[in-house]
Amino acid sequence: MDQVTTEIDAVVAALSTLAVTYGMAVLGAIAILIGGWLIAGWLEKGVDRSLGRVSHMDPTLRPFIASLVRYGILILTVIIVLGQFGVQTASIIAILGAAGLAIGLALQGTLSNVAAGVMIILFRPFKLGDFIEVAGEMGTVKDISLNTIELASLSNTQIIVPNSQVWGNVIENYSVYPTRRAEWTFGVGYGANLKQAEEVILNTILADERSKREPEPFIQVNNLNDSSVDFLVRVWVDAAVFFQYQADMKRRVKEALDAEGVPIPFPTRTLHIEKNEDTAIAAQ
């Protein structure tokens, strides 16, 4: 019985020693954890609200930045708590750095897409609804996320492009400016009256109400080909009707030239056949 009592007293003494040694540290750690958790949540909401008041801030980026702030505070809180118990925080930071490097190498492609997505959202080279061409793909922007963008092609197929390919390539945005310049090359025969042909082309284009009068349409002889005299024509038009307008004008100019009897050439080749004298004598 005395032995049991002695062992109990030893356990109580050990617990008392631990309580005296680490009690305040444990209470402090609990307080730090609670405080860090509350501060992290408060800062996350505050950052999200603040970013919401920033003009042109993409809604995709707001929760991402707010989450980074929250988890950064939580990681800092855990490091401080471990320091309460005498753990070397420098070693922890080194381990976290090494782990971050390993994860970064393993997820290099994904992280590059995320980084590019952040740049796209921040600098906004295009927005939803814009018609763009990038990385060899063309379509209307339907969605912008941290990893990819979604395009709807002219044939209404879905195109998913990784953000690293978007940010790392030339982006051609057809929707930024309200007007675009249409350009064609129309060829007429060498026997055609060039003044007449020029008037027919220009009058046909100006007859369409979509053609802008300012800047003034441009037309001039641009090239003398093997079988045609080429006119270069440039006209400004609203970007919204650009593709249909360009197709319509090709057809209408062709019909107008035909109606006015202006010849439109096609490639021809003239062959000169010479008789061989020896062959001719033998034939006689």
From TrEMBL:
Q: Name one Pfam family in it.
A: MS_channel_3rd
* Organism classification: Bacteria, Pseudomonadati, Pseudomonadota, Alphaproteobacteria, Geminicoccales
Cross-referenced PANTHER family, in alphabetical order?
SMALL-CONDUCTANCE MECHANOSENSITIVE CHANNEL
Please state where this protein is localized: Cell inner membrane; Cell membrane
In this chain the Mechanosensitive ion channel MscS C-terminal domain maps to 183-264
Q: Answer whether the UniProt record assigns the keyword Transport to this protein.
A: yes
- Name-wise, this protein is Small-conductance mechanosensitive channel
According to the record's subunit comment, the protein's assembly and interactions are:
Homoheptamer.
Q: Which UniProt keywords apply?
A: Cell inner membrane, Cell membrane, Ion channel, Ion transport, Membrane, Transmembrane, Transmembrane helix, Transport
What species was this sequence derived from?
A: Tistrella mobilis
